[in-house]
C-alpha cells in the first residue's frame, strides 16, 4: 500500500482494488517504447528460460500519445507514461506487485541525468522489489531485432532519427538523436519540413515548381502555400510534420525531381549517420568485411508502396560495409523493451 | 473619451490625463517596426512638406521585446505593440488625439487577413480620424532606405529573413518571410541553427571537428555538446538562436572551414532570394543592366568586424544585376514606418 500511495495519479491505479491475485499466474514484465508520435506499452509473461529464442507473446498492449520530453515536456511525458503503464496492467488484470521488471525505452532521453530523472520518478510508482531500467528508445529497437542481444547497430527513423551501436566488448556510440531543430536530416520531421520548404520556394520563385505543392496542400486541406505558414506555427508538435512523409514518397515515385531530391538527401544523411557509428565502434572490422546486425525500424523506412527508401539506404550502406546484415524486426520495439527488462533481472 | 474606453489596456493610457494639449504643437506621426527579436516605435513631427528630403528627426523612441505573431503569438504581440505605442506617446507628451497617422510594420504579417486583424485591433485604440496602416516590416525597411519612396528591393536579414520588391508600376513580390521552420536559409536563426547542427555532427562523428564547438559552448555557458539539446528545446524563442551569428562570423574570420561553409551557404541563399524577386519584377530590365535601389538591413548584414557577409552578398548579387545600388539606410526601419504613415495621409 505504501508504494501505491507514492503514486501521484492514484486514480489511475484504482483497478488494482478489484484484481485478485491468482497464485498460479506467473509474474509479468513490462516494456515501454516512448516516441515523439506515440507511446506503446506491452505486458509479457516472464519466460521460463534465461534467453529468448523468439519474441515473447504479448499478454496486453496499451497505446497513447507522444512521450518525448523534448517535444511534449517532462510533465506530459510522465503523465502519458503512467497512463500506459496502468492501462496495460489493467488489461492484463495484474497489480503492480505482480510485475518483476519494467523497462522504459524513451526517445529524447540520452544522458545519465535524463535517465536518472525518469528512473526516480518510476521508483515512486512501483514497489521497491520491481527491477526498473530506463534507456534510450534505440536500445529497445536494437533488442527487438536481436531478441535482446545488445550487439550491432540500430537505425530508428521515425518522427525523429537516431543511430545507436554496441560493439562486442560493450562499447557504445550514438549519432543524431538530437531532435529536429539540431540537425536530424533523414528523420520523418526533417523530410516533411524539407518538403514544405521546397513548396514555399516554388511559390516565391526561389526554387522550381513541384508536384509536392498540390499534393501537400491537399493533404493539409489548405488552399494556398501562404496558408502553410499559419499551419506550421500554430502547433509545434513534430508528428504532424512527419505525417507528410508518405506524400513525399508518393510524389517521388511519380518521378517529381524535387521530391526525389528530398528523399535522396535523407538516404545520404541516414547512411552517413550509420557510417559514423560503424566507424567509431569498428563494427565492420579493420578490412570493412566483417558481418554485424543492422536493425532498421521506423515509419520512414516502411515500404508503403511509394519510393523505396529502405532499399536505397541498404544499398548505400553496403558500399562501406558490404557484409552488414539488415534486420527488419518481426516484433515491435516495446517488446524489445520488455526483453531488456528481463535481461536486467537475470 | 469613447475611443480611450475601447482600449483593452486602459492603464497604459493613464498618462494622457496629465498631458495638456498645447495649440502651438504640431501633430505627430508614429511608426512601429515589429520584429522577431525586438519592437521599436518612434514618434516624429508631421513634416511641412509633402515629401521627405531627409529622415525626419525623432521626437521620442520606445523599444520592447519581440512582436512577431508567429514567434510569440497574437496576444503577446498585441500587448507589446500597445505598450510601445503608449510608451512613445508618453515620452513625447502627446495624447492619441494629437496623432495624425500610425503605421505598424510587422514581421510575420504577410497576407491581407493578417493585416486586417492588426488593423481592426489598432482601430480600437486610436480615435477614428487617425489614419492607420499595417504592412510587413520589409516595407518599412525599404522606406527607411529610399526616404519613403516605394520602389526597388529590400532584403531584411535579422532573426528572420525576407526579400520584398516593388516595381515602377507598383507590382510587388516577396521571397522567404516564411519563418525559420519553413526554409529561411540566410536568416540569423538559420545561421545559428546550422552552426549548432554542425557542432552536434562534429560531436557524434557525422561531421568534421570545428572551432565552432568550443566557441558556441562558451557563449551558451555549457560544458558539452549534449547539453545543447536541453538548451535548444527548453525555449523556442528564435532570437536566442540568432544571437549565435557573431560567433559564427568570428570563427569564419579565423578561417574555420565549417563556419565559412555555414556563412557561404547563407550568402548563396540570400542572393538567391534577391534574384527571385528581381526576376519576377524584372527590376534589372530585359538586359539585366538597369539600376535600382537594393536596401539591405538586419543584424546578419552588419559589419561587426568578423567575416564580412554583406560585401560577399553584394558581390554575389552584382553577378546577375551589375548596376544594382546597394543602400544601407541612415535611419532605422521604425522611421521608415513613420514615413509610410505620412504618405498614407497625403
From TrEMBL, chains A, B:
CDD domains: ASKHA_NBD_DdNAGK-like. It comes from the Eukaryota. Pfam families: BcrAD_BadFG (PF01869). Coiled coil: none annotated. SUPFAM superfamilies: Actin-like ATPase domain (SSF53067). Residues 30-341 form the ATPase BadF/BadG/BcrA/BcrD type domain. Its EC number is 2.7.1.59. Transmembrane segments: none annotated. InterPro entries: ATPase_BadF, ATPase_NBD, Euk-type_GlcNAc_Kinase. GO terms for molecular function: N-acetylglucosamine kinase activity. Belongs to the eukaryotic-type N-acetylglucosamine kinase family. This is N-acetyl-D-glucosamine kinase.
